[in-house]
Amino acid sequence: MIFFSTQCTNVWDYTVLYCGGACYTYIQSLITFDWLFNYGFLILIIVISNTALFTRFIWRKASRQQPIQWRRHRRLIIQLIFISSLFLIFGVPSTLVAIIEVLWLPTFLLDIEYNYLTYISVYGNQLYPFVIIGSLPEIQKDLKKWIGRIRRFFLDQGQVHPFQTSVNQ
């Protein structure tokens, strides 16, 4: 639809945030489909698949009558929670606002969506590497060492010591 549409001609306006776009974005049914498929459907898949994965894990352990050792699976659970919650934190607000705009109120939080929510998804993508690297145990140990060094450095710099002068008699 992006390359073969003959419905419009792009007009570039460099004074606005988005100075053009794909021609299919001017057709309401196509942009609604694009939004639902690329944003709403992704959030739905993440919620369903994470719930299914967690339920499957507990179901397998229960069917084999094995105790669940949460300490042993802690790293996997933390990584799953951080990655999913990062995507949901940065994806759900704009999705909810867009659903309300499409179904009920077309001007609902329009200025907030235009000025803030369009950028939030970009920040989520930028934070994924830090979440993944931060969940590795070797990196966590190194980070704790660096944080301890930085803390000691600032604590030493911020201390006030009395100044002693020697009195010559």
From TrEMBL:
Domain of life according to the entry: Eukaryota
Membrane-spanning ranges: 36-59, 80-104, 116-136
Keywords: Membrane, Transmembrane, Transmembrane helix
Entry protein name: Uncharacterized protein
Species this protein is from: Adineta steineri
Taxonomy of the source species: Eukaryota, Metazoa, Spiralia, Gnathifera, Rotifera
